[in-house]
UniProtKB/TrEMBL annotation:
Keyword field: Cytoplasm, Methyltransferase, Nucleotide biosynthesis, Transferase
Gene behind the chain: thyA
GO BP term, example: methylation
Localization of this protein: Cytoplasm
Organism this protein belongs to: Lentibacillus halodurans
Protein name: Thymidylate synthase
Binding site for (6R)-5,10-methylene-5,6,7,8-tetrahydrofolate: 223, 317
GO MF assignments: thymidylate synthase activity
Family: Belongs to the thymidylate synthase family. Bacterial-type ThyA subfamily.
Pathway where it operates: Pyrimidine metabolism; dTTP biosynthesis
Pfam families referenced in this protein's UniProt entry, alphabetically: Thymidylat_synt
Amino-acid positions noted as binding dUMP in the UniProt annotation, renumbered to this chain: 25, 180-181, 220-223, 231, 261-263
Active site annotation, chain numbering: 200
């Protein structure tokens, strides 16, 4: 059983040692294993990794974006959050409206070629300015399709109605805590072809026992070095918020992984992280005057006593 941050590090070591070398849609290549699980006791501290600095502000603003049902990166850019830029940028540079320098395979090329990296940076800055200042441009190229927020808050039915899964699961936890149906799904087969990135974290389920709320996430595709540390903290935060609204204590976060992989160009970064010792986990403080999770803003969260090792940079595979 893999538990806590050490469990995460053990998984990294296991994948490097036992992972199968596989190709992938990004043409980067991965070391991959299938079917893994980690458990985090949320009463031991907030599970933000300490063996490298993980930006909590970006995690929290992304989660608020999901919870609002938003699918346009403008909100993220307004909060200085750039974690979804590459997927929206890709839509622009592959469109008929783009007339700038060739941006094919920009993620890998920007890592290998400093001259191209500067050209890419300039084009990305143009793109971000347009998203923030041009409503028509933002509506067309900032929109990522019916990704997480849309599925969580406005799942479209065959009767042309919508289901607010997040509100319904909170109601279910409050009024029928022993139910085995506290489930939210982001995987909508009809919408998947039109998403900038089909959901990697596809389904989550809540569980109430002894006055504590736990959450299990099934993640079909898990970028162990860059993505999974965000996913762990994001779903832990969501569990904290729903427990707060439902007057429950926090329990566990259980993270179940399908294709758990380390990109080949992240291997050295992972080895650097594995050479570090874990430190005490931070504490999450939530401003408690707000009752509904839909009322929270970024300023309502405070992370106390976070003392991580320095961040480790790595390229994003797009």
């Amino acid at each position: 059983m893999m538990t806590g941050e050490q469990g995460y590090l053990n998984l990294c070591q296991y994948i490097l040692k036992n992972g199968t070398k596989k190709t992938d849609r990004t043409n980067t290549g991965t070391y991959s294993v299938f079917g893994q699980q980690m458990r985090f006791n949320l009463r031991d501290g907030f599970p933000l990794l300490t063996t490298k600095k993980v930006p909590f502000r970006l995690i929290a603003s992304e989660l608020l974006w999901f919870m609002k049902g938003d699918t346009n990166i403008r909100y993220l850019l307004q909060h200085n959050n750039n974690i979804w830029n590459e997927w929206a940028f890709k839509q622009w540079v592959e469109s008929d409206e783009y007339d700038g320098p060739d941006m094919s395979d920009f993620g890998n090329r920007s890592q290998r070629d400093p001259e191209f990296a500067e050209i890419y940076r300039k084009q990305m800055n143009i793109f971000k300015r347009n998203i923030l200042n041009d409503n028509a441009f933002s509506a067309k190229f900032g929109y990522l399709g019916n990704i997480y927020g849309k599925q969580w808050r406005a799942w479209k039915t065959s009767q042309n109605e919508t289901i607010d899964q997040l509100k319904e699961v909170i109601h279910s936890i409050r009024h029928n805590p022993d139910s085995r149906r506290h489930i939210v799904s982001a995987w909508n087969p009809e919408d998947v072809p039109n998403m900038a990135l089909p959901p990697c974290h596809t389904l989550f389920q809540f569980y109430v026992a002894d006055g504590k709320l736990s959450c299990q996430l099934y993640q079909r595709s898990a970028d162990i070095f860059l993505g999974v540390p965000f996913n762990i903290a994001s779903y832990a935060l969501l569990t904290y918020l729903i427990a707060h609204e439902c007057d429950l204590e926090i329990g566990e976060f259980v993270h179940t992984l399908g294709d758990a992989h380390i990109y080949t160009n992240h291997a050295e970064q992972v080895k650097t992280q594995l050479g570090r010792h874990t430190r005490p986990l931070p504490t999450l403080k939530i401003h408690e005057e707000k009752d509904s999770i839909f009322d929270f803003e970024l300023s309502d969260f405070e992370l106390l006593d976070y003392d991580p090792h320095p961040s480790i940079k790595a390229p994003i595979a797009v």
